[in-house]
Design a protein that fits this description.
Keywords: Cell membrane, Membrane, Transmembrane, Transmembrane helix. It comes from Exiguobacterium profundum. It is a single chain. With about 775 residues, the chain is an alpha+beta fold. About 55% of the residues lie in helices and about 15% in strands. The strands form two sheets. Strands 1, 2, 3, 4, 5, 6, 7, 8, 9 and 10 form a ten-stranded mixed beta sheet that branches. A six-stranded mixed β-barrel has the order 12-13-17-14-16-15.
Length: about 775
């Protein structure tokens, strides 16, 4: 009989239970989906990285000779002919190059005697595939560290064979034994992975991550040496001892542990933070559900105090009365958690594939785990049982006489007192309106936290809008040129070509940067600040990129020291270019040319911007501006998807919380609403007095969350800049406040629609009925 009565009571609250069900399902779904999705790449990744002997640290080094190395006669002789970069020296005299690298490795091993060091040799290329510009990174096979891993097929054994990434092959319809032309034709022998490139990052542009238009490549050593491309070098190391990251060696730019290198270590952060986030989000969401369920049960029991008191008076004990409430709530929560678990299992594979759209990793079929099932279902269920049991135990603990007697008015809580002091000069109607919403501290707290959490997610999503564009293409959308090309010679400039000069070996505050010389009358690549104003180059001043300014905390008017070729020059910053694709400092080309040639010429250049594709015999490396923009589309689509997920999830949680709390408020105050109608208040006035105070509190909560969101984002930006050297160009615009408040307003009125209709339906006779009882 008791079970039947409680079932009827709960069935009348099906709409509130449905909203609570959404929150419970989201909790189990979030944890299951993220845990299984991440585990689907974690297990095979750990095996793959161990089998391939992933580097423990990497040493970025100067790709040119140092002053000490120039003391060797053979190196000095080559430098006099213009061969001062490692790539130039390797091409001119392989024996001298090998001695240079051996001496550098020996110097590092002297500082870290327990480490094994190996050269990492790479070549960056661009080529046309299906009328689209693609990029490749040819990686020379290692002996012991960062060995290649075959997902399918074989390693190249002939000079006309090549292995590439499986994801790239799938995106472009390439199968093993197909022929691909990357400047010359190769037969695909297999699909390869490299443990130091779990993200396909080939340059400083951290978010050019389109695996459909860029790939890692493996050739035979002979093919690698004869293939033309931009060659670069670094050192890889493994050790079981602490890593010395502050090596004071003239050729060392930086020493970074793998966990802090975004091209390889980001996967560690993704796995660890993903699991922590899954558990944290799940606990947060289920906590909201548990508290709302506790409020629902409390309201139900308070509404039935008389009946419960009567049952106790005729001999029913606490356990008999409490069991129906607790059992039915737990059955309801159990089935919702089960639904969430299987929905999470269903979405886990798409999440795993989403990771593998960008991470170059092996994967396995997702298998269910009893531990995940227990954590996703029974852990929250236990939480439900404890909280619901505590609420029921507290109310059931009162005596039959106390339950049958009307409850005395509860004294004001601290929040009510605070609001009361703020409204001491307000009218009675206004005081009633705004004090009623804060009468229950627990209800108001969950309301505030729900709005806070949802608004923070909405602000995050809005600030992500356009961030990827700023990082990937930067000023390319404003540029006029179509091709950026590099040369080792001095070809004759043609119409529609403008020269530039790059020097990628300068230092500012011990940070390696690229000095870039542009002509005063440059029109194809104009520099602009974040307001869109044109920047003018000056011989005695520097324009720096936004990414460099953010990393080093630079501002216009500051003086900075620039070290190049053993000299240190001081320049004031005359402008900050809206450019996030690398760490650049801009000078007039004539000025930089004179600096690099000791004043012998002001006309040096090593690249051009062009409106038409230049001759490949003069410019072996050619980059298409449109190709770079197209490569950013993949990550843009991903970020837009994430933005929609954040906004959708935030809206669903906020809607559910507002719906349940406002519905409970109306149900709890039938008598008050009826009394207000008897006193002559119109429907609109009653709605305003009962519900609209929540509207004001929702707007206040949203406004308070915006600075919290900005502070959180600032911490994230600093952490990424310090740990990974990655600047996230998230921008906050004042219009976002309007968008955020608009979203909260829309959610509020959508979620309170049913409650407003219920207010209209409450009859005046309710007050007489309650009075008679």
């Amino acid at each position: 009989m008791l079970y039947k009565n409680v079932w009827k009571t709960l069935s009348r609250k099906w709409m509130q239970l449905l909203a609570i069900a959404i929150i419970i399902v989201m909790s189990s779904l979030t944890y299951t989906m993220m845990f299984y999705g991440i585990s689907g790449i974690e297990v095979p990744t750990e095996e793959y990285l161990e089998e391939s002997n992933q580097e423990d640290f990497a040493i970025d080094m100067l790709n040119r000779v140092t002053e000490e190395e120039l003391r060797e006669p053979a190196v000095a002789t080559l430098a006099e002919t213009g061969a001062f970069t490692l790539a130039d020296i390797k091409q001119a005299d392989a024996e001298v190059f090998n001695r240079l690298i051996a001496s550098r490795i020996a110097a590092v091993e002297q500082e870290m005697p327990d480490a094994t060091i190996e050269l990492r040799d790479l070549k960056a290329i661009t080529y046309t595939f299906d009328d689209t510009e693609h990029r490749g990174m040819i990686v020379k096979e290692s002996d012991t560290i960062n060995r290649s891993y075959l997902e399918a097929g074989d390693r190249p054994s002939a000079n006309d064979e090549i292995a590439l990434n499986k994801k790239y092959a799938e995106e472009n319809g390439i199968d093993i034994r197909d022929t691909i032309d990357i400047g010359k034709p190769f037969t695909v022998s297999g699909f390869v992975l490299f443990p130091d490139y779990t993200l396909p990052l080939f340059d400083d542009n951290f978010f050019n991550l389109d695996p459909g238009s860029q790939t890692l490549l493996l050739m035979t050593d002979e093919s690698f040496e004869t293939f033309v491309g931009q060659e670069s070098f670094r050192l890889s190391g493994v050790t079981d001892q602490p890593i010395k990251t502050d090596l004071e060696l003239p050729f060392v730019v930086s020493v970074m542990e793998t966990e802090n290198i975004i091209r390889s270590g980001a996967i560690y952060s993704e796995i660890s933070s993903g699991k922590a986030m899954a558990l944290g989000l799940s606990l947060f969401i289920v906590s909201i559900a548990v508290i709302i369920v506790a409020i629902l049960i409390s309201n139900m029991l308070e509404a039935e105090r008389g009946q419960i008191g009567l049952l106790k008076a005729i001999g029913y004990d606490r356990r008999q009365i409490a069991s129906p409430y607790l059992v039915l709530i737990l059955i309801f929560a159990f089935f919702m958690l089960i639904i969430g678990y299987f929905l999470g299992l269903y979405f886990a594979n798409p999440l795993k594939e989403l990771y593998l759209d960008f991470y170059l990793l092996p994967s396995i079929t997702i298998a269910q785990s009893p531990l995940v099932f227990v954590t996703a279902v029974f852990a929250p269920l236990l939480f439900f049982a404890l909280v619901a049991g505590a609420v029921i135990y507290k109310i059931m603990g009162e005596s039959a006489l106390a339950l049958l007697s009307p409850r005395d008015n509860v004294s004001l809580n601290r929040l009510s007192r605070f609001v009361s002091r703020l409204l001491k000069r307000a009218s009675g109607k206004t005081k009633f309106k705004y004090l009623y919403a804060v009468k229950s501290t627990g209800s108001f707290l969950i309301f505030f936290l729900g709005i806070l959490f949802s608004t923070i997610l909405i602000v995050f999503a809005l600030m992500m809008n356009g961030a990827v564009d700023r990082m990937t293409v930067g000023g390319l959308n404003e540029a006029v040129y179509e091709y950026e090309a590099y040369t080792d010679g001095a070809p004759v400039l043609e119409e529609g070509q403008e020269p530039f000069l790059t020097y990628p070996f300068a230092f500012v505050e011990d940070k390696l940067i690229t000095l870039k010389g542009l002509d005063f009358d440059n029109t194809l690549f104009p520099l602009r600040n974040e307001d869109g104003d044109a920047l003018t180059l000056e011989p005695d001043g520097l324009v720096v990129s936004s990414s460099l300014a953010l990393k080093l905390g630079l501002d216009v008017g500051e003086d900075i020291d620039v070290a190049l070729d053993g000299d240190t020059l001081t320049y004031p910053i005359i402008g900050i270019a809206d450019e996030f694709s690398g760490d650049f400092a801009y000078l007039p080309r004539a000025t930089l040319s004179e600096l690099l040639t000791d004043g012998s010429t002001d006309d040096l250049f090593n690249g051009i911007y062009a409106t038409e594709r230049p001759n490949e015999s003069d410019y072996p490396t050619i980059l298409s501006r449109q190709g770079l923009i197209d490569q950013s589309e993949s990550i843009n689509q991903y970020m837009n998807f994430m933005m929609n997920v954040l906004i959708g999830g935030a809206s669903l949680i906020a809607f559910s919380i507002l719906f349940v709390l406002t519905a409970l408020t109306v149900e709890k105050n039938y008598y008050v609403i009826s009394l207000l109608k008897v006193m002559g208040y119109q429907k609109q006035e009653v709605r305003s007095m009962i519900l609209n105070s929540y509207f004001i509190y929702a707007l206040i909560s949203a406004l308070l969350s915006i600075p919290i969101a900005l502070l959180t984002l600032r911490i994230i930006i600093v952490v990424f800049a310090e740990d990974y050297g990655l600047v996230l160009p998230l921008e906050f615009e004042w219009i976002y406040i309007v968008y955020t408040l608009g979203a909260v307003v829309l959610l509020f009125f959508m979620s309170t629609f049913v409650s407003r209709r219920k207010i209209d339906q409450i009859p005046l006779q309710e007050v007489l009925k309650t009075y008679q009882e």
